[in-house]
C-alpha cells in the first residue's frame, strides 16, 4: 500500500471513529482502539482503552455533535498522524461540554489493519494579549 492509499484509509477510519463516538458505538471502538490506547483530554488527564469505553458504557457521556474537520494526515511506514479540529456538543454527568479542540490522532497499522493508538485534545483559544498584533 502506498502512502496516499494509507492516508485515505486513515481518513476513512477517522470519519468512522467520529461517527462511532457520536453514537456511543462501543463495539466499533473496542475493535478500533489498540489494547494500549491512551486518550489525553484537554486538561491533561489520561484514559486507557477501558476507561475510554466506560465513558460510553456508563451513559455519563452523551454527544449531540461530534465532528472532525480541518483534517491533515501524514503517513509513515506503519503509522499515521492526523491533525484536525474536533467540534463537540456533549454532556458529561449532566454537565455541558461544548467546545472546539485541536486534536492529534495517532494511527498504527497492525496485521494489515489500521487502529487508533492514541489521541490528544487541546482546547482552541486565542493568543495571549502580548502576542496579538
Automatic annotation (TrEMBL):
Domain DUF4440 residues, every copy: 10-115
InterPro entries the UniProt entry points to: DUF4440, NTF2-like_dom_sf
Any Pfam family matching the protein: DUF4440
Signal peptide region: none
TM region positions: none
Name the UniProt record assigns to this protein: DUF4440 domain-containing protein
Lineage: Bacteria, Bacillati, Chloroflexota, Ktedonobacteria, Ktedonobacterales
Amino acid at each position: 500500500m502506498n502512502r496516499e492509499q494509507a492516508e485515505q484509509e486513515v481518513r476513512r477510519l477517522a470519519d468512522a471513529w467520529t461517527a462511532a463516538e457520536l453514537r456511543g458505538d462501543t463495539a466499533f471502538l473496542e475493535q478500533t482502539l489498540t489494547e494500549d490506547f491512551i486518550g489525553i483530554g484537554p486538561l491533561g488527564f489520561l484514559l486507557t482503552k477501558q476507561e475510554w469505553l466506560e465513558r460510553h458504557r456508563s451513559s455519563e457521556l452523551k454527544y449531540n455533535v461530534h465532528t472532525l474537520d480541518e483534517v491533515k494526515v501524514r503517513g509513515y511506514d506503519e503509522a499515521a498522524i492526523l491533525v484536525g479540529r474536533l467540534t463537540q456538543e456533549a454532556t458529561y454527568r449532566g454537565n455541558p461540554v461544548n467546545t472546539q479542540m485541536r486534536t492529534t490522532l495517532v494511527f498504527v497499522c497492525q496485521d494489515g489493519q489500521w487502529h487508533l493508538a492514541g489521541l490528544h485534545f487541546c482546547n482552541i483559544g486565542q493568543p495571549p494579549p502580548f502576542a496579538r498584533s
